[in-house]
Amino acid sequence: MRQQLRLRVLVPVAVLGLLGAGFGAFAMGGPASPESIPVSSSGALDTGAADTGAVDTGAADTGTTSTEPAPAPAPKPKPKPEKKTPLEQELDAHGIVVVVFHTPGSDLDGTAVREARAGAATADGGFLAVNVEKEGAVAGLAAEYEVLGAPTVLVLGQSGAVRSRFEGYVDRETVAQAVTNARG
């Protein structure tokens, strides 16, 4: 009697468990794709198509018989824009840039920076002050433009070429005229 009770309880529980597991696998996995369903060569249906003489090996066909459109290629990631230097940013914005190499704390250099800034603003040019005490940031720029002392004022054209060069102090009118000349 006890064994019959166990069978009456265990059999329905086992059947329900198997049905639940099957349903869960189906729900979580989704429907099977046509490519994953094996095709038996012995039980193949006759579709009425002409016999091509090809032997069915049971391997998946490599030909495209799907009516679904091919997936679109993944979009290429956009290249990150290169970070521009302050000089490049000023050249892009204004076309002509006044660059002053200066030593902070020096009265003459401070005056040269103020005059160069005012001259650049008068002629609608860009402006960049370069502290020569910051060797790491300045060394390449100073070497490129052969700057040996401070203050030095350069007027650079759109391509970065030196249009005017002034060693030492220069007033705002001279800087403005150099910017105007570099445009023409």
SSE diagram, text form:
Layout: H1 2-29, H2 86-94, E1 97-102, H3 107-122, E2 126-131, H4 135-144, E3 152-156, E4 162-167, H5 172-183
Helix pairs in contact: 3-5
Describe, in plain words, how this protein is organized in 3D.
The chain is an alpha+beta fold. It has a domain at 86-183: Glutaredoxin, CATH 3.40.30. 41% of the residues lie in helices and 12% in strands. The chain has five helices and four strands, in the order ααβαβαββα. It has helices at 2-29, 86-94, 107-122, 135-144, 172-183, and strands at residues 97-102, 126-131, 152-156, 162-167. A four-stranded mixed β-sheet has the order 2-1-3-4, sandwiched between helices. The longest helix has 28 residues, at 2-29. The model has no long low-confidence stretch (mean pLDDT 77).
Secondary structure class reads alpha+beta
Overall strand count: 4
CATH class of the domain at 86-183: Alpha Beta
Beta-strand share of residues: 5-15%
**What is the CATH topology assignment of the domain at 86-183?**
Glutaredoxin
Distance between the termini: 112 Å
What are the secondary-structure elements, in order, as H or E? HHEHEHEEH
Task: Note poorly predicted spans.
Answer: none
- In which order are the strands of the major sheet placed? 2-1-3-4
In CATH, the architecture of the domain at 86-183 is 3-Layer(aba) Sandwich
Q: So, the CATH homologous superfamily of the domain at 86-183?
A: Glutaredoxin
> How many strands, which pairing sense, and closed or not: the largest β-sheet?
4 strands, mixed
Number of separate helices: 5
Helix content: 40-55%
Rg, alpha carbons: 40 Å
**Silhouette:** rod-shaped
